[in-house]
Each structure stands twice: as C-alpha cells, then as structure tokens.
Amino acid sequence: EPRSPCCCLAWTLVIGTMNSLVFLLNLLLMFVIFTIVLLPTIVVVYFGFQCHSQVLHSSARYCKSILDDNSSSALIILGFVIMSPLLVVAMAIYCSLARRLRLLVCFQPYSLAVYKGGRWCHPGEGALCCARGCNTQLKAWV
C-alpha cells in the first residue's frame, strides 16, 4: 500500500542518502585503485615534463646530469604508451573487487519509499549492505 506523503519524503531522503554513500564508496574505491595502478605512468610523465626544457625545465640535479630533452621526450612518450594497458588493468581490478564485494547490489530502488512492505534486502542477494541470507550463486553480470 502507498505511504503517506510525509513518510514517503522521509524514506526518499533515507534511501537517497544510502545510495549516495554507496556511490561515494564506489568512487573512493575506484580512485584508490586507479591511483595505485597508474602510479608508474604518473611518475614517468611527471619526470619527463619536469626535465624538458620547453615545459618546466627544472634545475634539479637529475635533470642536469641524467635527463636531457631527448630522454625527457622519451619518458613522456613511454608514459602515455603504458597508460592504455594500465587503464585496462585498473578497470579489471575495480570490476573484480566491486563484484566480489557486491557493491553494486547495495543500491536501493526508490519504490521502497513509495510503498509499504518493501524489503531492504531481497532474499538471496547477499551483499555487504544485506549480510543476512547470502547466496553465493548470485551473479551481478551475466
């Protein structure tokens, strides 16, 4: 049966807040994974741009003794070349972890706010947000 307008508004805020927190958790997890996996690319491109005379031309000791313009250009190109495979690896790690933790199952539909008697956790979903009654056979992607 439908909820009253005030109750519906309150439940909408609760569900919206919960979905926002799940979204932020997913975003934080993605940021951490991509930062760790792409760290070699970030470092290589940073040193390439820092030591190139046309960009930043740092006066650091390693820029004067080890890296000239040609080697800085090579570092920049190498960094951008290794970025593509590392992006694929980072996305595969994130998807695997999100699937294993069942983070995408934690999003709740707004129909729970409109109608009484809805369940927060459907039997057999088994995510972190619904720890009771875990079903190991559930697949998030077919």
TrEMBL record:
Location relative to the cell: Membrane
Keyword Transmembrane: yes
Membrane-traversing stretches: 21-49, 74-94
Keywords: Membrane, Transmembrane, Transmembrane helix
A GO molecular function held by the record: PDZ domain binding
Keyword Plastid: no
Signal peptide coordinates: none
Topological category with respect to the lipid bilayer: Multi-pass membrane protein
Gene Ontology CC annotations of this record: plasma membrane
Family: Belongs to the TMEM88 family.
Protein name: TMM88 protein
